[in-house]
Amino acid sequence: xxxxxxxxxPEVDELDLQIIRFLLQDGRTPFAQLAKQxxxxxxxxxxxxxxxxxxxxxxxxxxxVDPDKLGLSLAALVLIKTDPKRTxxxxxxxxxxxxxxxxxxxxxxxxxxxxxLVRDHHELGRFLDKIGLLDGVTSTNTLVVLRKIKxxxxxxxxx
Length: 159
Fold this sequence. Notes:
Blueprint: H1 14-25, H2 31-38, H3 42-54, E1 74-82, H4 87-95, E2 100-105, E3 112-118, H5 121-132, E4 137-144
Helix pairs in contact: 2-3
GO molecular function, one term: sequence-specific DNA binding
Keywords: DNA-binding, Transcription, Transcription regulation
Organism: Candidatus Marsarchaeota G2 archaeon ECH_B_3
């Protein structure tokens, strides 16, 4: 993964979008197969993917795991209020915690929302105690996820 080069954003055309759509479905698709399906050369696929990586459009390739199969069966959203002067400190500390898989700076009554994964209610309680001890946290509100209605990592592009 090359990363974003100092603000460079490549122009993304229809061919780039087609490549991205295929890779979103299966990031392990060989470039030769992409080239055949798109009726272009493998070198073109490689060049396009490299351009998209260099520009930060493609941020990386990863494995998607089922948290339940790893024993992380309790998901929760933690809404966080902070002392405004300590918000960035709180966010920095939360971002370091393994239980936090997503963290958002939001508008409204709360300053942040953290999505967390833990094994059970006991771990959730310990995690909430840990958050409550962070310098700058004034209150939290926790929403335990009962069912996942929709969860995806696939972004609609160019539709």
